[in-house]
Design a protein that fits this description.
Elements lengths: L10 H13 L4 H9 L7 H13 L3 E4 L7 E4 L6 E5 L5 E4 L5 H11 L9 E4 L2 H6 L1
Length: 132
């Protein structure tokens, strides 16, 4: 896909894409750590720019799972809704069908189509609720 757009598949780009696949959900900082463990000299700016390019190419998606950096995951994964525990920070994934009543209502009433791949719901997981 990169070559089709006249771009090269550099070792850094390949490592960054590999990091997203390996880490599952990863912030640019986590991707940077992964890459630096394998190759010295790759700076955080390169990671951010490459993640933006990979998203433009449709190879990765991002979502916001906290107040910090966006979290990236591979496009090849099934779409899912993120459940983020505010207490322990765990991230669970659920099938987007749980959002169907809301997405259908928004489409019917507002002609608004929800991108469920970017939906994150914040709350408290069962483990944290049980231990409280």
């Amino acid at each position: 896909m990169l070559r089709e757009r006249g771009l090269r598949l550099t070792p850094q780009r390949q490592l960054i894409l590999e990091a997203v696949h390996e880490l599952g959900h990863a912030t640019p900082e986590q991707v940077h750590t992964y890459v630096r463990e394998r190759v010295a000299g790759v700076n955080i700016t390169t990671v951010y720019r490459t993640l933006e390019l990979l998203e433009e190419l449709g190879l990765v998606n991002h979502t916001h799972l906290s107040h910090g950096s966006p979290t990236y995951h591979a496009v090849g994964e099934d779409q899912h809704v993120h459940l983020v525990c505010r207490a322990c920070g765990s991230i669970a994934e659920v099938d987007p069908s749980v959002m169907r009543p809301l997405t259908e209502q928004l489409l019917a009433e507002r002609s608004f189509r929800v991108d469920v791949g970017h939906v994150s719901l914040f709350g408290e997981c069962g483990d944290c609720k049980a231990s409280a």
